[in-house]
Structure formats: structure tokens, C-alpha cells
Amino acid sequence: MSDNTERGEAYTEDASPDDSGRNDTPRRGVREWLTDLFSDEPEDLSELMEILREAANRQMFDDEALNIIFGALHVGDMHARDIMIPRSSLVVVREDQEPAELLPIIIESEHSRYPVVGDDVDDIKGILHAKDLLPLVLETDHSKFSMKDCIRKATVIPESKRLNVLLQEFRATRNHMALVVDEYGQISGAVTIEDVLEQIVGDIEDEHDVHDDSGIKQMEPQSFHVKANLPIDDFNEHFDTQFSDEEFDTIGGIVLQAFGHLPERGETVEVETLKFEVLNADSRRLRLLRAGLVAWLFGLGQYGVGASWVYVSIHVYGNAPPPLALFMVALFVAVLALLFVWPLGWCFSRLRTPRGSWFSVFAFVALWLLLDWMSTWLFTGFPWLLPGYAGLDTPIQSLAPLFGVLGTGLFMCLSAAALAAMAVNRRFQLSFFGLALLPWLVGFVLAPVNWVTPEAQYSAALVQGNIDQAVKWQPDQAVPNVRKHLELSADHWDADILVWPEAAITLYPQQAQGLLEDLARQGQATQTDMVAGIPGVEMVGEGQYEFQNLAIGLGRARGRFAKQHLVPFGEYVPLEGLLRGLITFFDLPMSRSSPGRADQPNLQLSFGSAAMAICYEIAYPASMRQRARDAAVLITISNDTWFGASIGPLQHMQIARMRALENGRWLLRATNNGVTAIVAPDGTIQGRLPQFEAGVLRGSIHVMNGETPFKVMGHWPALAYVFGVLSFALLRRWRKSASTTTSPPLAGS
């Protein structure tokens, strides 16, 4: 051995620092490090799976082959207990049974192998092959038959047996069935080689599958195999039952409702006079339902926290007892989660995108954005918790003037989805990290860009009356309410524009005609544009009236604006014939309002028009964009007293800031008890009053010249992304001819 070799061996065996403190451990060079970083070789199973997914995406092999490979990779993680036929579903024969008793059992059950038992199921004697009894069919003399001569040795395995090991044993011993025992040595089920292979290649039709076109197969005089997707009408006709098809279309839906959970194979349930047993479970449908359930649970958390202020409105001001208020909030939250979040999980699973792939990131974001967009109009909409609002006060807010709140939310979700993909796709971690950073970098670059420029400057005064909501609408408080607003405004008529909040005047215009004339004269005398909130009423027929929530122009201002987007229960009552009068919450003041027209003109001020939004409707970005096209300023008046000290008023303020940023206009926000504020076109708050205090906010605003890209394009760029990605996803799935699954059969008796 050479000296060099000897030194090399000593070097590898002793890698500790020498006496001089120098570490002689071999160091990897930069080239090796870069090679590992950009190498395509997988380091673990998850990376290998990602490579396989990418190969399938490139059409190197089809989905069926990919599923088989994945099945083979995952079968080692599964145990016998995961797939075994449960004890209750085993068909066994006794060792003392005669051929005359055995043959009917074998013919009716159509199995190929049967456990042979002694005194009970736990007394296993062996396995009987049906083919070993074939000679008996031709013989008439069965006196020489001996069960012991036909029994083969039974393979017994624990529930914890891994399937890859079991498959090897099946191949080595040429056995096709193993009996499974629990920790106490009792029989808990059985596993066949077919059960194991199905985990790799998918469902293999066996004796449990229903081949009859009718979907019903009689097994015994009082036992049938029925497909879960059998229409209820067909089931009723065959079994002379009266199941209703109003809620479900198939018998599987009725059985699933009876279980109250996603059943597994072997579970039973009784529905009326029938007993149903699940003979097979469809793992794909299970995955879809679970994905939808996870999304719905996320939605419960999202709306349960984000819209928790609804409880204040119902309990404190609707006088509903706490249990009833909690129930109504829970119902409200559950419906919102079902409408705007549950479809995200369900649809994403239906797309069957490779987990952690590039396409899964883009598809997930597209689905999220689609539901956000639907929340702005479906069933009048509830666009309250859009993720784009979280971009305020971050570099991403620079994207709002280009793409609006939906587009900003797109980039927020894209960044979050890319970070999530990093956790499951190590192969492209660096690339996903770059994608996650990209929106922030683009926002940082766009931050100095000014889409609009200031022109003339005007002074503004916003009045915050802080009137107690509990007494505000009482008839004897109408005059004190007005008097308080007049007192607060007395020293501020020198402002170019004076704004009173929503319903600052709690009289109808016909009742307050003298007051309105006085305010108009005062505004003319001081050259002031005044905007005030007031309820409106008009006779639309004999004995019929139309109520509206109004903002009117006084002094130099002209016109009236009727609120278009009404708050459910607060300004109108859905299913009014059923709910009106049940509790105070269904009969709140102004809860009989009618919406204003979508095409009504803006209020006219002395220096231009004002795009109005009354309270909740500031949350509708498309409507505000439409009104802001020719507007010099945005004005929103509100009465957030309904929200109490909850997070509602702060969320409302955040939403108003986004409208100013999207449209590149100054925004004036006057409220009864906060948050009253002046917002600049860049979304920053230039001045605000403390909540729950009476006062007047003074400040300056500018008429802005120019338009933001969002004001011109609206949400079309964001929607183009949504429909482009989802159209590609549907086309991709259609072209790849995704494999279909058969419906799991149910046994009925």
C-alpha cells in the first residue's frame, strides 16, 4: 500500500481538528454545491413524486400509469387494517357442514375462498377453495366427502402488517388470502391479494361489484347489492318504498345522510325498515368530500372571526337573546362558508392537479379569485373579507391602482400558494420562493409611480355626532339629533364642503322641509357644498310607500343619491313574509328600504361631482369604479354604531381606503361614531377622529387629474387570469381523459 493511500485512510478515519485547531474534514467545492442545487436527481420520495407528476404533465405517460406508480410507492405505508374486509362482512363455512349446505353458500356468495371455522369465527381451521368442491357437482354420492381433505393452511397476519411485505409473502407462498387478527388474537377481518393490488392499480371488479344494468342484484331472498348512484325513483319502484327525492337524487345520498359521516366499508345503518351496509368505499369521492369539508371549515373560521361583529348587531341592537344571536350568527357564517369557500376545495380536488406543482398553484389561486369575484354579486354579494385588503400598508398595495382589490388579492394568494408549494415540492423550492417574492418586488418597483396628479385644493369638514344608537330613532330624539349636528357644524361653515353622516337627520324630507331649506340657505351664504344623510319616503301607490336611504346635496351641492346595495336584515328582510316580526332584529328601523338605481347620477358639487357610497356599499369595488369615472372626489357616509366596539368599523375603514387607492381620488368618510377620516389617493389616512367621541374633522383635499389603470380596465385583467387558467385546466383534464370510478355498491336487506 502506498503512502498516499495510507494517508487517505487515516484522513477519512480521523476527521477531528488537529492540535493546531485546523479542521481537516474534506470540504465540498462550489461546483459540487451548485451541482446538488440544480440537480434533477430526487433526494427523497416527495421529490421523486414531483418528478413523476411533471413527466405526466408533459404527456410522457398517462394518468393511469402515474396512479399505478404512486400506488406502488405508497403501498408500503399502508397496513392490513387499512384495507381488510371487516369481520362482520366475512362469509365463512363450518368444518362440520355437508356438501349440500356448502354448495348453496358458495353459489350465492360467489367468492373463491372461504375461511373454515370451528365453534366460532375465532376458531380458524383453514381456508377452503371453491374450486376444490367442483368434483362434488358431478357426483351424487357425497358420503366420502371430508372437509379436512379440502382445507388448506390459513395464513394469519397482524393488523399492523405492511402491505408491501404482505404482497411479497402472497407471491412467495402462492396464497391469495390472509386472515387478520387483532392484538388479542381475535379475527378482525381478511385481506386478499386483490385488495392489495387494488391499492396499486385501482379498483378491480370482483364479486361485490354490481353488473346488472338496473343497479340492483339480488343475493339472497332478503338481501340485495345496490349501486349508490341508483336514482331514488328506481329504488322506490323496485322495493316499493317511499323515499323522497326532493333533497337527494340517489339512494346513496339518503344513506350518507343517515350515517351523518363518510362511512367506511363494513359500516351499517338503518333507514326506516331497511338495513344498509357499505360493501365498498370510493376513495376518490372520499377525497373530494374531505377537500370540500376542509375548505368549509376554513370558511367557518374566516367568516366566524372576520364577520363576528354581526353578533353585536343582532344581540345588542336587535335585542335577540344570546343563544338565539349565536345561532343566527352561526347560520350566517355557515352559509357564507358554503357559498364562497366550500366550492374552492371541492373544485380544486376535481381538477386533480399534481400536488405542489406549478399548475396547482395557478389553479388554486384562480379558483380562490373566482369565488372572491362571485362574492361581489352572487345573492347581492358579501365582499367583506377579500384578501386584497391585507395588501394595504405593504408594497403590494402599489398593484391596487392597476388591478383593483381582486388583482391585489390575486398576487397575495399567488405569493402564499407559492410558499405552500415550497413545503411539498423541494425540487422547485428556489423557483417557488422566487414566485412568492415576485409580487412584493413588483409592488416595490411600482411604489414611486403616480397615476394621478393634484390640481385645485379644497377644505373639508366632516361631522361625527356620536349619537347613541339605542335612542337615535326614537321620535322624541329627532330634534335633539339635528340640534347636536348643527352645534358641531356652527364653526365650520367656512369649509368648501361639509359632510354629515348617514341618517344624521332622522326625519323624512317632507317632515324636515324647513330644516333643509335653512341648511341650503346657510350653505349658499357661506359658499359651502353640504352633503347629509337622511331617510327618504315616496308614495308609489295607494297606501304603498317606498323607503330609501339617501344622501342629499344642500347649499351649493345638488342632487340626491339613494343607496343601491342594501344590508340584509338591516335595510331589507329576505323572506319577509316569514321573518318579519318574529324578533326585533327582523324589524329594525329602515329595514323596509328599497334600493336605488344602478345608473343614478352622482351628486354635483361646486368643484365637480361626488361618487357616493352609503355605509356597506363602499365594499362593492365595481359599483364605486362606475361612479368614480367622472368624479372629483369620493364620499362615503356611514353609521357604524351597529358594530359597537368590534372590528367591524376598522374593517370598514380599511375597505374605504382601498376604494381611494383603486380610483386615484381623495375620499371623505363621515360616520356617526367612527371611523371618520380623510383618505388620500394613495390610500393613506390624512386625518381621523377618535371613535366614540363627538367632533369635527378638518382637512384639505385635492381634485386629481388623470385615471388609474383600474379605473379604465376594471377587474378584467384579474378575470382574464381566472377564466384563462380554469379553461386551460378543463381542457387539460378533457384531453388527458381522466379515469372515472364506479359507484360504491351498498348492500340492502
UniProtKB/TrEMBL annotation:
Residues 1-10, 19-29 have a biased composition (Basic and acidic residues). It is found in: Cell membrane. One of its GO terms (cellular component) is plasma membrane. Its main location: membrane. Plays a role in the transport of magnesium and cobalt ions. Signal peptide: none annotated. The chain crosses the membrane at residues 293-312, 324-346, 358-379, 399-423, 430-451, 713-731. Residues 1-29 are annotated as: Disordered. This is Magnesium and cobalt efflux protein CorC. One of its GO terms (molecular function) is N-acyltransferase activity. InterPro entries: Apolipo_AcylTrfase, C-N_Hydrolase, C-N_Hydrolase_sf, CBS_dom, CBS_dom_sf, CorC_N, FAD-bd_PCMH-like_sf, FAD-bd_PCMH_sub2. GO terms for biological process: lipoprotein biosynthetic process. The lineage of its organism: Eukaryota, Sar, Alveolata, Dinophyceae, Suessiales. It comes from the Eukaryota. Residues 463-703 form the CN hydrolase domain. Keywords: Acyltransferase, CBS domain, Cell membrane, Cobalt, Magnesium, Membrane, Repeat, Transferase, Transmembrane, Transmembrane helix, Transport. Residues 84-144, 150-210 form the CBS domain. Belongs to the UPF0053 family. CDD domains: ALP_N-acyl_transferase (cd07571), CBS_pair_CorC_HlyC_assoc (cd04590). It holds the Pfam family CN_hydrolase. It is a multi-pass membrane protein. The gene is lnt.
